[in-house]
Write a structure and sequence with these properties.
The complex is a heterodimer of chains A (541) and B (443).
Chain A: H1 3-17, H2 24-34, H3 40-47, H4 53-66, H5 87-99, H6 103-113, H7 126-139, H8 144-153, H9 155-160, H10 180-190, H11 216-225, E1 229-230, E2 253-254, E3 264-273, E4 280-286, H12 292-304, H13 309-321, H14 328-339, H15 349-358, H16 360-367, E5 374-375, H17 378-388, H18 399-405, H19 441-456, H20 465-473, H21 475-486, H22 493-505, H23 513-533, H24 535-538, E6 539-540
Helix pairs in contact in A: 2-3, 2-16, 4-15, 5-17, 6-7, 6-13, 7-8, 8-12, 10-11, 13-14, 13-15, 14-15, 17-18, 19-23, 20-21, 20-23, 21-23, 22-23
Chain B: H1 22-27, E1 33-40, E2 50-52, H2 55-65, E3 76-79, E4 85-88, H3 93-100, E5 104-111, H4 119-123, H5 137-146, H6 157-167, E6 179-181, E7 196-198, H7 215-226, H8 233-256, H9 271-284, H10 286-289, E8 293-300, H11 309-333, E9 340-346, E10 350-354, E11 360-362, E12 366-371, E13 380-382, E14 405-406, H12 407-418, H13 425-428
Helix pairs in contact in B: 3-11, 9-11
Classes of the chains: A mainly alpha (541), B alpha/beta (443).
């Protein structure tokens, strides 16, 4: 061996020892979970890391949460109208999803908003709704307990679930405090209806039946806790009346005279075993804490510290970001971080998100067989294709109408139960598939027709130049390009066969440059259509 | 306070027969039958849908409902059985007309029940005898549709009824599903063997194509790709769903062709109006689809009126009533009134006791509407609860009625008319064995 060859091989060996960033396939797959879909630029940015993949991902997550939320500005009132329409707000959302730098923050906020649901179905003025959505974006990088307090006192939520102007009632009154918020904060936002193990599986009683988390008495008790709140005064600092006029810009304020000062039965952080059954009962009597605000804080603290909350929330966040069917062990590992992150803090959302996205189960598919899969929900499907295809999206886009046609009208979940339930089971299987609840035989075709518009119509001005160039070379080049753009290198033999057969059947009508270009375009369109409609793209693995 | 009323099944003379075009309907001699489920999502307040209208009963109602009581000069009076006096919500004018013509009935206090349940039994109830997660929207919606009250149901009673119908080969060789939802995926339409079709009212059916080179091969390759059933259960399910949609829409668009409903009826431009219009169109073309037995599912949401109930429920019921009126008239126009029975479902009723925000909270047993030319209408079936907080029907002190008629009895009555034979009722409604009355006789 000559000296120069020796040196070269030494350098190569040293480089081999040095940690590498993730492969482009691994980076693209990660970004399918940690952004609104990979782009050539976002994949390249992760790849340029000189650090090992896990560190690269952790750095990305930390950097993403440090970026301020993309703005969703108030909507200008149309001439002669007093109600702000949602269209411009939906367009801002999609503009941010496609172009905003705070990709992960937006994904997490969107997931949290599908747990802590407020809907335009009832809050029908966009400018009344948007402060709630901005809170989700801000609090996505904070603590879950702060989110609980902020959303509880948000006036859109107050109106949506009737906590605003929910007055105490005298003893033996002919009416009762409103139970709506009390019920749904437990059932949907924090702990769920049945007791869970830390790994997210249900606890069972001696007969094998699930164990209720709370009783109707607790709902009625909590309804009393949530009495005595009204809208903020029109001008900050002015004196509140008992029922202020609607004000969606500021958190609700207490009216002590309308708050119930008696003791109230609430959900407790700590359980006591039932003497006969041995099952845990999470109930305590909350004595009056001295003010409506202190009662609220005390009740929310108990809920926050209840052991059901981490598995109930963590499993859903995993479902929204990574997979519909996480193993109990995966849920348990994330729950451990929710309970206590590296700094000893409970409920730190960025730490939980990092645990979700860097877990071995989430990452197994980067280099080997994927253990995860979930159907893309319409908003993600639309935004992801727009990003992957580099579609020009501005703040006047119409993307929300396409997602709506697919069953997901942005900001308008039909009820507080969101567009789909986390427990939705795919008929005929034992698999959970929450997003399948809105994926019907009819809406499946709407998705395909969106892809048809994307590639065959001029609606979006989709630039297919790179794909046409690839198609002009040969089918393998075209296939590889689409594989890396949409499927992080995981294109199946079946899809390849479909692309190749279609490619072969589209033959140039002559040998002129124009005829060849036309064939290349039609081959690129058909191949992209097949990939974007394919079940393996609809379902992220 | 009057004692609990017990209603006997009665049939009233069918008056005003031609009012809704039933003469036309009678001319039809087809064997076709359809059930139409109208689901009121969110929990419709039955206490303001069906109201006692005798003086003492109405006074009691007014006192207990307080600020959400409907005024006496607005409610729509109807006759109950044995000359009893009742009233409907002021929005239900069309339904009132159908009721008075004898083609609509009310069924009182229906709900999720494993077995008959007295108040004493409720108070002593152990897990397993009570429906799972009472008062929870998602659980009670699911149980209304599955009739599995342990919360573990994975198929719906509509889908299971279609399984039975398919066993009888009542739909011959038609490849179109017997259950069709105009309201997205619903578990009610999931059978053990059968699956549901879906339509989005007003949307274009089928795949958009293009006319360039390779159109045929592209679509053929897509068909092949989605039929591969590889890549795990979620990928397979995504492909199968699209495959089903393409198949259904091809059949449906061929059958619908250019057929249009008679223009004598204008369906309201609401979601529920559009859904029922779609259903009427498909019923009209059932022969072309090769169908003799169909179950349809439509829905209307936002009935969760915890506050401002008088306005909120009023708006929704006005929409619903207008759509019902148009639908029933259209059925008469296409000669199908006697062949179609529509009925309502909802999560639950609401507390009789109002909330401090002028609404009501989640409750249990509810009053439901049934209409169609075959309905033995103009009366109220079941047992109307005693309106008393903490009274004999109350599961507590807020006016949550323990149902006195089960979903299985309500559904089995409909399914029996539809053609499910007695021997197969248990397949469709596993708990019907716990009830001695298996047919309420309203249709």
């Amino acid at each position: 061996m000559t000296k120069s060859l020796f040196l070269l091989s030494f350098v190569a060996a040293a480089a081999g020892l040095q940690a590498q960033g993730p492969s482009s396939a691994a980076a693209a797959r990660f970004l399918g979970q940690a952004s609104w879909g990979p782009t050539a630029a976002s994949v390249a940015a992760l790849q340029s890391s000189k650090l090992d993949p896990t560190t690269t991902y952790k750095n990305y997550i930390a950097a993403q949460f440090a970026i301020a939320p993309s703005a969703i500005p108030d909507v200008a009132l149309p001439t002669g109208s007093t109600v702000a329409p949602f269209g411009p707000a939906q367009a801002s959302f999609f503009n941010n999803a496609v172009n905003g730098p705070d990709q992960l923050r937006q994904r997490v906020a969107f997931a949290l908003g599908q747990i802590w649901v407020v809907s335009g179905v009832k809050i029908n003025d966009a400018n009344q709704f948007l402060p709630y959505y901005r809170l989700l974006l801000e609090d996505a990088s904070g603590n879950f307990q702060k989110l609980m307090t902020d959303i509880t006192l948000n006036p859109a939520m107050g109106h949506y679930l009737d906590m605003v102007n929910n007055d105490k009632v005298p003893l033996n009154s002919t009416n009762s405090p409103n139970e709506n918020y009390a019920r749904e904060i437990l059932q949907l936002f924090t702990v769920g209806t049945v007791q869970l193990n830390e790994d997210g599986t249900e606890k069972k009683d001696k007969t094998g039946a699930p164990i209720p988390m709370y009783s109707q008495d607790v709902i009625e008790g909590l309804a009393h806790v949530f009495t005595g709140w009204t809208y903020a005064p029109a001008k900050p600092g002015t004196v509140s009346t008992k029922h202020n006029p609607a004000n969606y810009a500021y958190p609700m304020v207490p009216v002590e005279s309308l708050h119930d000062t008696g003791g109230k039965l609430i959900l407790s952080a700590t359980g006591i075993p039932d003497p006969t059954t041995g099952e845990m009962v999470y109930t305590k009597s909350l004595l009056y804490q001295g003010s409506a605000e202190k009662d609220l804080a005390a009740a929310l603290t108990e809920i926050f510290n209840n052991p059901n909350l981490p598995p109930f929330i963590c499993k859903q966040l995993i479902q929204h970001l990574v997979t519909s069917n996480p193993t109990p062990a995966y849920v348990q590992r994330v729950v451990n971080v929710f309970k206590k992150n590296a700094k000893g803090v409970r409920g730190d959302i960025p730490s939980v998100v990092e645990a979700i996205l860097t877990d071995t189960e989430a990452r197994a598919g980067d280099t080997g067989t994927s253990l995860t899969s979930k159907l893309q929900e319409p908003v993600l499907y639309v935004a992801g294709l727009a990003r992957a295809l580099n579609i020009k999206v501005t703040d006047t886009n119409n993307l929300a109408s396409y997602a709506s046609g697919m069953g997901q009208n942005l900001f308008f979940p039909p009820t507080v139960f969101n567009y789909f339930l986390p427990s939705y089971q795919i008929p005929g299987t034992t698999q959970l598939g929450p997003e399948f609840q809105i994926y019907s035989p009819a809406t499946a075709q709407v998705r395909a027709n969106f892809a048809n518009t994307l590639f065959y119509a001029t609606t979006f001005g989709t630039d297919l130049t790179a794909y046409e160039t690839a198609a002009a070379k040969d089918v393998t080049t075209l296939e590889n390009l689409i594989d890396s753009t949409l499927l992080h290198g995981s294109m199946s033999a079946g899809l390849k066969s479909a692309v190749e057969t279609t490619y072969a059947a589209i033959t140039p009508t002559g040998t002129t440059a124009a005829a060849l270009a036309t064939a290349a375009k039609e081959r690129a369109q058909a191949a992209l259509y097949l990939a974007a409609v394919s079940p393996e793209y609809q379902v992220q693995k | 306070m009057t004692s609990r009323r017990r209603f006997l099944q009665t049939s009233l003379a069918m008056a005003g027969f031609t009012r809704f075009g039933l003469m036309n309907a009678l001319a039809a001699s087809t064997d076709y039958k359809a059930l139409v489920c109208i689901f009121m999502f969110g929990g419709n307040d039955g206490n303001n849908l069906l109201i006692p209208a005798d003086t003492a009963g109405f006074d009691n109602y007014t006192k207990l409902r307080g600020a959400i009581a409907l005024p006496s000069n607005q409610i729509l009076k109807i006759a109950g059985p044995n000359k009893s006096e009742f009233a409907l919500h002021p929005s239900m004018k069309n339904f009132q007309g159908i009721y008075e013509a004898g083609h609509a009935a009310m069924v009182a206090n229906v709900g999720t029940l494993v077995q008959p349940m007295t108040q004493a039994q409720y108070n002593a109830a152990k897990a397993g005898t009570l429906p799972y997660n009472l008062f929870s929207h998602s659980d009670q919606q699911q149980q209304w549709q599955t009739s599995a009250y342990d919360g573990l149901g994975t198929t719906g009673w509509g889908g299971r009824a279609i399984d039975v119908i398919n066993k009888y080969q009542d739909n011959g060789a038609s490849r179109f599903p017997g259950f069709l939802s105009a309201s997205g995926n619903v578990i009610q339409g999931v059978g053990v063997q059968s699956r549901a079709a879906t339509v989005v009212p007003g949307a274009t059916l089928g795949l958009s194509g293009f006319t360039g080179a390779g159109a045929t091969v592209r679509d053929a390759q897509l068909q092949k790709l989605i039929s591969l059933k590889t890549g795990g259960s979620l990928v397979t399910a995504a492909g199968t769903t699209l495959e089903d949609g393409i198949t259904d829409d091809n059949l449906l668009s061929t059958a619908l062709g250019t057929a249009k409903l008679p223009t004598s009826v204008t369906f309201p431009a609401t979601s529920i109006g559009g859904q029922l219009k779609e259903v009427a169109s498909i019923i009209q073309t059932h022969s072309a689809l090769g169908m003799n037995r169909q179950i349809f599912f439509v829905s209307l949401g936002s009935f969760d009126t915890h506050s401002a109930q008088l306005t909120g429920q009023g708006t929704l019921l006005t929409q619903l009533d207008a759509a019902i009126g148009a639908f029933f008239t259209a059925l008469g126009d296409i000669g199908m009134a006697n062949n179609v029975t529509a009925f309502t479902e909802s999560d639950f009723s609401r507390t009789l006791k109002p909330t401090s925000t002028l609404g009501s909270d989640h409750a249990w047993g509810n009053h439901h509407m049934v209409f169609g030319g075959a309905v033995k209408g103009g009366t109220i079936y079941g047992q109307f609860p005693e309106l008393a907080l903490g009274g004999p029907n109350d599961a507590g002190g807020e006016g949550r009625w323990i149902p006195t008629t089960s979903i299985d009895q309500y559904g089995a009555t409909l399914a029996s008319w539809f053609g499910v034979q007695a021997a197969d009722l248990g397949t469709v409604f596993p708990n019907i064995k716990n009830f001695s009355t298996k047919n309420l006789g309203f249709v």
